[in-house]
Design a protein that fits this description.
This protein is an alpha+beta fold. The chain folds into four domains: about 350 residues, no CATH class; about 70 residues; about 120 residues, no CATH class; about 100 residues, Carbohydrate binding type-21 domain (Immunoglobulin-like), CATH 2.60.40. Helix content is about 50%, strand content about 15%. It has 24 helices and 17 strands. The strands form five sheets. The chain has a five-stranded mixed sheet with strand order 6-5-7-9-8. The N and C termini lie far apart (about 95 Å).
Length: about 675
């Protein structure tokens, strides 16, 4: 290894010892590189195996759930991720629709990014085992958060960190490895495609390392490498621009332009919150929005084109921009920096990397100050300029980039940290990682499949399924592996909110059922189902405020925990004029249970050879005073039949008030044909 230079270079406002690099640069030793790559690969294989076997991998946000659903339809337009990745996932989906390609590609991307990040750091360490252990521990600590809470922004961040680190390390070696540069650009390309807005943010976070690299090249007076570095930078910028143009062009059709216009203003509004209702009450009233409506829309259910449309959203965004400067509070920013980040499990590892810089002997204390200042400036930009709230998916990528720069400088420094301090830091890392994982709520659970509901719903093209966004995202992001790969692009489902509202195939589904406004047209519409238990009360209240005071929700299916409703009024009536009596194909069994003032009616019914999911059970209750009312019974799975049986969904229940002498007429409906079953006197 070459000797450290004695002269110092002062640049960018801080001093760096030339001990950060060697006189001739890092020597490339193929055998040592191979050993370090194998160590990094095996270590990451073991760590990922533990994650897959012991912990549950989940989506951090609904955005990834939406894109996974889109990818599992064989559709390339992923909304937030570049169309090129969309085509890659579509190609893989055509090979096998059973494999969950979307989360699998994210996990594989994180895995290889980790492998090359740790490979670069390890090969810069001579024989200092303690430094190698620190690198692996810190890598594992951050990897836990990347793996267990998948999010496309985090995937983009770690890929970009790996690519930049690999390029810089090659430029500062005595010779450039073309294969490694190619791998680096593959990672940069994937990172840009996952989220191009991360590109400049990660460059900013790693700017001190990039500056060190250029200072080194200038001092070495290596014109070829300087030109090569400039060419690499220009190529990266051209790559960024080209991928952006490809993605933009793919959304140029009229239907996608309508969607992107709506989704853009919708995102601006919901990402930063609605303007205060009390302060802007007059504007809200002009838009036809009540305070309860704002609360309802804040739960991401807003597919009402009469009220929540591009025009009204744009007016609210304008109000938001008017108050933007008022939201920038220096005291609040300090509070966020000092206390807000403590909620992140990786924050201790982030701080430890700065402590390690402080322990280094020499002039690197100036670099420590520069890194702290750089972090504060990035956070101020995100908070004050972009007006962004704290989000782990952004913060962890920036923090990990800074940590990698810190580790690189620590490793390259000739003045070693004392053995005792290093062991102490390793112990702290170990305790923090173990404690956090031990208290994690991400332990694996495989008992939340919804195969019964999915199998039945996919066969039902007679109804439009309007899916409410759940008030609790735990239910819908919990199981990424077992919900994937089973979906086809359906023309009978739509989202009542979320990122896919009015997406082209949802618009097509609405057109298939002549629906323009699902909130208004679901009332007494036998073709429209509303799906979602947590938000049904708020949805009915919304419909009552704007469209029909007499509307109520009727629970018609409860399968796999999925609640399916029809919105009805007292005008509901079952058409029994052409009812069929004594059908030989109809098989049924009735029972009831009386408990004080209530009775539970139980019906098991199906038509031979037909899919029982499409059937409906009804009970007409007649009272002694001559009045009567027809109720639709709630459909459940019948455990007497296995999951593959056509008669799996043949059980119906109804809880009713009990009055002595009441009569119950049971009916079964299939494809709009009503069948008479039996009359029972209770």
């Amino acid at each position: 290894m070459g000797k450290c230079l004695n002269r110092k270079i002062i640049a960018s406002g801080f001093t760096i010892n030339n001990s950060v690099w060697e006189k001739q640069g890092r020597k490339n030793c193929p055998e040592e590189n191979r050993k370090n790559l194998i160590v990094s690969l095996l270590y990451n294989v073991c760590f990922l195996s533990i994650i897959l076997l012991c912990l549950q991998i989940r989506y951090e946000t609904n955005d990834d759930l939406s894109m996974a659903t889109i990818a599992n339809m064989g559709e390339e337009h992923l909304i937030y991720i570049n169309i090129v990745i969309g085509y890659l996932l579509k190609f893989l989906w055509n090979i096998s629709a059973v494999i969950p390609w979307y989360p699998l590609l994210e996990v594989v991307s994180i895995f290889f990014a980790n492998v090359f990040i740790e490979y670069v750091l390890l090969r810069n360490i001579n024989k200092n085992v303690i430094k190698k252990i620190i690198v692996l521990f810190v890598g594992a600590g951050f990897s836990y958060f990347f793996y267990t809470q998948l999010q496309f922004t985090k995937v983009a961040g770690i890929l970009l960190v790996a690519g930049i680190l690999l390029v810089v390390d090659n430029l500062m070696s005595n010779e450039i490895n073309i294969i490694e540069i190619a791998v680096a650009f593959m990672q940069l390309t994937m990172g840009i495609m996952y989220r191009r807005s991360c590109f400049f943010m990660i460059i900013w976070a790693m700017l001190p390392l990039i500056c060190i690299c250029f200072i080194y090249l200038l001092t070495q007076k290596n014109i070829k490498k300087i030109i090569g570095a400039c060419c690499l930078g220009i190529t990266a910028l051209f790559l960024f621009w080209g991928l952006k143009q490809i993605d933009t062009h793919s959304y140029s059709t009229p239907e996608w332009q309508d969607y992107t216009e709506y989704n853009s203003v919708r995102g601006q509004l919901l990402d930063h919150g609605f303007p205060d209702y009390e302060e802007n009450q007059e504007v809200y009233k002009q838009l036809g929005m009540q305070k309860e409506d704002v609360q309802y829309y804040s739960n991401w259910n807003f597919a009402d084109p009469q009220i929540f449309n591009v025009e009204s959203i744009s007016k609210l965004v304008a109000l938001q921009q008017d108050t933007k400067e008022q939201m920038v509070d220096k005291k609040d920013f300090v509070r966020v920096l000092t206390t807000g980040y403590t909620k992140y499990g990786w924050m201790p590892l982030f701080l430890i990397s700065f402590l390690m810089l402080a322990f280094i002997k020499g002039k690197e204390k100036y670099f420590l100050g520069a890194q702290i200042l750089n972090f504060i400036l990035i956070q101020w930009y995100l908070y004050a300029i972009l007006n962004r709230y704290l989000q782990q998916r952004v913060d962890i990528s920036v923090a990990f980039a800074i940590v990698c720069v810190n580790l690189w400088v620590i490793i390259k420094n000739c003045g070693n940290c004392s053995k005792e301090k290093c062991i102490g830091l390793i112990t702290i890392c170990s305790v923090l990682i173990t404690t956090y994982i031990a208290n994690s709520y991400e332990y694996i659970q495989y008992d939340n499949e919804d195969s019964d509901y999915s199998a039945g719903m996919m066969e039902d093209d007679e109804h439009l399924y309007c899916n409410l966004v759940n008030g609790s995202k735990d239910e819908i992001i919990n199981d990424i592996w077992y919900r994937s790969g089973k979906l086809a692009k359906k023309k009978h489902t739509m989202a009542m909110g979320g990122t896919t509202t009015y997406i082209p195939w949802d618009a097509e589904a609405m057109n298939n059922f002549s629906i323009v406004n699902p909130y208004e047209q679901c009332i007494d519409n036998e073709q429209v189902y509303i799906v979602g238990e947590n938000m049904i009360d708020a949805t009915v209240a919304y419909i009552q405020r704007h469209y029909n005071m007499g509307a109520y929700a009727c629970l018609v299916k409860k399968i796999d925990g999925r609640a399916v409703y029809k919105i009805r009024t007292d005008q509901f009536d079952l058409n029994i004029e052409n009812m069929i009596y004594n059908s030989e194909e109809l098989k049924s069994k009735e029972s009831y249970e009386i408990n004080n003032q209530t009775c539970k009616l139980v019906l098991e019914a199906y038509l031979q050879g037909e899919n029982s999911y499409l059937g409906e059970g009804y009970a007409e209750i007649q009272y002694a005073d001559g009045t009567s009312r027809i109720y639709q019974m709630t459909q459940y799975t019948n455990d007497e039949y296995d999951k593959n049986s056509k008669y799996r969904y043949s059980k119906y229940l109804l809880d009713a008030d009990y009055i002595n002498g009441m009569t119950v007429n049971y009916y079964y409906k299939y494809h709009n044909q009503v069948y008479y079953i039996k009359t029972v006197v209770l």
